[in-house]
């Protein structure tokens, strides 16, 4: 035990500590680079999401406008359908009245 060299032992520990410090420093540098790349990717994603949001909002406004147009068209079609139905009823009533008048005239002309 007497030949143990404390200087070599301390030197070895210092070298090992330095290697650990260098590895840690390199690991921190890699982590920092990854963090920077992740931040850039995040900014790109946020920008793309903002563009997509604007596109979706424009699409939503167009759909709302189309929906309003469809609602107006639907109410116009319902009104047209009602008018066609009323016109058919009036036409049937006119035909029935003409038949009654014709029967009445035939009765008055020939049977009297």
Automatic annotation (TrEMBL):
Pfam families: V-SNARE_C (PF12352). SUPFAM superfamilies: SNARE fusion complex. GO terms for cellular component: cytoplasm; membrane. GO terms for biological process: protein transport. Coiled coil: none annotated. The chain crosses the membrane at residues 85-108. Signal peptide: none annotated. The keyword Transmembrane applies. Keywords: Coiled coil, Membrane, Protein transport, Transmembrane, Transmembrane helix, Transport. It comes from the Eukaryota. The keyword Transmembrane applies. CDD domains: SNARE_Vti1b. It is found in: Membrane. It is a single-pass type IV membrane protein. Belongs to the VTI1 family. This is Vesicle transport through interaction with t-snares protein 1b.
